[in-house]
Amino acid sequence: MKFWGVAWRATLWVLDGVAAVAQDLSPPLRLWPPEGDPDIPTLADRAWQAVYWLGYRAARAWWRMRRPDQHGAIVAVWLDGRILAVRQSYKHGLTFPGGTIHSGEAPLAAAQRELREELGLAVPAQALTLAYETTMEWEFRQDHVRIFELHLDHAPALAIDNREIVAARFMRPEEMLASAMPPFIRTYLLEGRRP
Fold it and tell me: Please, what's the b/e burial string for 55-76 (b: 16 or more CB within 10 A of its CB; e: otherwise)?
């Protein structure tokens, strides 16, 4: 077991070094492009994507053994009857922007933080409303998820990092339902939660 821990740390160290060195040697590479004018992923972005991919798989193995409780906040961003779907570099399918609620952090503050981190979108707390809350078994965890809604009247300028989030676009809920997604998002959309 000790070998795998050392191997994992060495892998992260190498990938972090590759990302640092490659910062200025960024050839144009492309993933699934979002609408608009996306930034082209760099070699450093690809290295970070590999770190996210490996880290996610290691986390799933840990969750399988430990079966932890998880608290998350995600945001359904609505614009003209369409919803913002994001694609993560380390998972298949689509999701909403969001993530884990840190210890001592309020769910609403976590939703705001995740919008800033993942999309470069800063919104005031009063713009978000809690629309759906559920607890379900997912990815070997007891996942307590809060879905906040944000209703926009014009398309925002999004700044995805091409590391954790590799694409973002508005789509009709029916389009999104045709893709793989977390079960709590599917339930939210199927229950007709629309503007």
Answer: ebeeeeeebeeeeeebbbbbbb
Measured distance CA(141)–CA(89) in Å, rounded = 21
Residue 83 neighbours by CB distance under 10 Å: 24
The CATH number given to 2-190 is: 3.90.79.10
Q: Give the chain's residues under pLDDT 50.
A: 1, 18-34, 36-37
Does the predicted model carry a pTM greater than 0.85?
A: no
In 107-181, which ranges are continuous DSSP H helix? 107-119, 173-177
Distance CA 48, CA 7 (A): 17
Separation of alpha carbons 176 and 3, rounded Å:
42
